[in-house]
């Protein structure tokens, strides 16, 4: 089987990732296109500095130290801690630093995480440790997202085939579990739906499609329609299409990220949703589930780009740096240190553009 390997931008000269300039250490500070290059010769992406990079490294090292022998992470380090969701988020965060399954300081950890998830691919296609996950579709969506990024960078043919089998099954399970309204709920096959689970499935499916895996177009189209059917007059997105109620800032931010992933930057609904999100969210304000909201708000703003993103990244990076513990971790939404640290790392690494699903 042949496939096109998609390398993260750290390997692309002149890309959005880190550019190392050899032989400049003794030349003093220089500027290229108005960007100051430190004496070390290292050029940071726009908005990133040495403090942010140190915080990223400390956060990644915390995740490495807390990974379990079986390759998993768990919320709060407990035995009932959504291992599929936490492992997927942590593995994704380590890939966001620029490591891949084959190279980089965190390659062994990424490989172990992928192996753990593949071992828990059930016959149905659901990726879950059922006895530890009350709402398994969250983890299933995050697992598709992470494993699709791994698949897109994998060069070992045997591992490619194994990943492909797991992802093909996962896609079929997600497609089969889509409700008549076009969304998804906490568990597969109950013909119910709500917005936050729907977002995880759509992002996972998009990542699979981006990696060259077949995803039924109708499934994604129905999911985008579900988001549209969940929109209120104020531009915000409510809890779900079959419910009436107020707009939810966090779910609206998540919807924006999904719409931008689908290339709908100029869609009227996307414009209204982003306007609502920007009026109700800031780096220090979310109205609940702060890390969850900032994860998707940051992704959407990065896709949007421009001054809004520059201003946001400056503020969110300061917010995150002030809240990082001496051990390198973040506490996120009461879910635990794995969750908070993974989300903080994903946000802080966005300017590096290492992961295809998060690139502009």
Describe the structure.
The protein has a single domain (9-358), classed as Glycosyltransferase, CATH 1.50.10. The longest helix is centred in the middle third of the chain and has 21 residues, at 157-177. It has helices at 50-66, 83-96, 107-119, 136-153, 157-177, 195-210, 217-229, 249-261, 268-280, 290-304, 306-323, 337-348; strands spanning 19-20, 30-32, 35-37, 42-43. It is mainly α and 360 residues long. A hairpin with a 2-residue loop joins strand 2 and strand 3.
Task: Just give the CATH class.
Answer: Mainly Alpha
The parts where pLDDT drops under 50 for at least 5 residues are: 1-29, 32-36
- Write down the Rg: 20 Å
- Class based on secondary structure composition and strand pairing: mainly alpha
* Average pLDDT for all residues: 90
Q: What's the total number of strands?
A: 4
Helix content range of the residues, please?
A: 40-55%
CATH architecture: Alpha/alpha barrel
Largest sheet: 2 strands, antiparallel
> Could you give the distance between the termini?
29 Å
Summarize it.
With 360 residues, this protein is mostly helical.
How would you summarize the topology of this molecule?
Blueprint: E1 19-20, E2 30-32, E3 35-37, E4 42-43, H1 50-66, H2 83-96, H3 107-119, H4 136-153, H5 157-177, H6 195-210, H7 217-229, H8 249-261, H9 268-280, H10 290-304, H11 306-323, H12 337-348
Antiparallel strand pairs: 1-4, 2-3
Helix pairs in contact: 1-12, 2-3, 2-4, 2-12, 4-5, 4-6, 6-7, 6-8, 8-9, 8-10, 10-11, 10-12
Main attributes of the structure:
two-stranded antiparallel ribbon; mainly alpha; disordered N terminus; 12 helices; Glycosyltransferase; 360 residues; 51% helix
């Amino acid at each position: 089987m042949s496939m096109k390997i998609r390398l993260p931008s750290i390997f692309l000269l002149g890309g959005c990732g880190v550019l190392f300039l050899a032989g400049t250490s003794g030349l003093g500070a220089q500027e290229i296109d108005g960007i100051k290059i430190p004496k070390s010769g290292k050029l940071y992406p726009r908005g990133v500095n040495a403090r942010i990079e140190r915080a990223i490294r400390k956060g990644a090292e915390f995740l490495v130290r807390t990974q379990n022998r079986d390759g998993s992470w768990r919320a709060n380090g407990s035995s009932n801690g959504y291992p599929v969701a936490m492992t997927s988020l942590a593995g994704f965060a380590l890939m966001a630093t620029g490591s891949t399954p084959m190279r980089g300081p965190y390659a062994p950890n990424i490989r172990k995480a992928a192996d753990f998830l593949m071992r828990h691919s059930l016959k149905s296609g659901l990726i879950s440790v059922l006895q530890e996950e009350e709402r398994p579709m969250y983890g299933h969506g995050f697992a598709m997202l992470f494993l699709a990024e791994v698949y897109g960078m994998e060069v070992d043919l045997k591992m490619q085939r194994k990943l492909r089998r797991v992802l093909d099954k996962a896609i079929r399970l997600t497609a089969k579990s889509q409700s008549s309204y076009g969304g998804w709920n906490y568990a597969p096959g109950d013909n119910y739906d709500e917005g936050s689970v729907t977002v995880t499935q759509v992002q996972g499916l998009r990542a699979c499609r981006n990696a060259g895996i077949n995803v039924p177009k109708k499934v994604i189209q129905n999911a985008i329609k579900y988001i549209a059917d969940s929109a209120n007059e104020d531009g915000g997105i409510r809890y779900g299409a079959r419910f009436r109620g107020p707009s939810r800032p966090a779910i609206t931010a998540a919807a924006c990220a999904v719409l931008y992933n689908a290339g709908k930057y100029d869609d009227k609904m996307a414009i209204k949703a982003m306007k609502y999100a920007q009026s109700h969210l800031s780096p220090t304000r979310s109205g609940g589930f702060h890390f969850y909201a900032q994860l998707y708000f940051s992704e959407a703003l990065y896709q949007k780009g421009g001054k809004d993103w520059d201003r946001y990244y400056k503020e969110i990076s300061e917010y995150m740096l002030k809240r990082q513990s001496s051990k390198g971790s973040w506490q996120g939404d009461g879910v635990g240190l794995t969750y908070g640290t993974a989300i903080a790392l994903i946000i802080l690494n966005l300017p590096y553009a290492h992961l295809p699903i998060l690139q502009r």
